[in-house]
Specification:
The chain has 147 residues and is mainly β. The protein is built from no helices and 11 strands.
């Protein structure tokens, strides 16, 4: 998977307080929360923000107000969905469809996009969410064998 880093100057929704959530490119130079398991990973929000015109999206952001970690191989703290529990080191992480991360196990399907691997453990008890350190390592599942 090749990675093209873009100059992000627009957002497709309010990203304030969503540090640790995954984003995808929704249009050229525009990011938004990952919509589903099939969306192509772009990066993880390190510092969220709202647009210069709150409530109107997509719209521009102030320079330096949004920080997204897009580098393959880097480590970043991610927000774990309350519906995903007992994540162990080395678990494959993907998207829940709302920007939060979940572990993939036997439910991993062809066409899913893996975002990375867990580097720390987390136990999540609904409704609280947890965080874990993830190595950003996006991969596309072309074929998945269940052994």
């Amino acid at each position: 998977m090749s990675k093209i880093v873009n100059v992000i100057d627009k957002i497709s929704s309010n990203l304030t307080g969503l540090e640790g959530y995954g984003v995808t490119l929704t249009a050229p130079n525009t990011v938004g929360l990952s919509a589903d398991e099939y969306a192509e990973p772009y990066g993880v929000i390190v510092q969220g923000c709202d647009s210069l015109t709150p409530g109107t999206y997509p719209s521009p952001v102030a320079e330096g107000s949004l920080v997204v970690m897009p580098q393959i191989g880097d480590f970043v703290w991610v927000c774990i969905s309350p519906y995903s529990s007992n994540i162990k080191v080395g678990a494959w992480l993907g998207q829940q469809g709302n920007g939060q991360f979940c572990k993939f196990g036997d439910d991993l399907q062809e066409g899913f996009r893996v975002w990375g691997r867990a580097m720390t453990e987390v136990v999540v008890a609904y409704p609280a969410t947890g965080r874990c350190l993830m190595r950003f390592q996006p991969e596309f599942i072309f074929h998945w064998h269940k052994f």
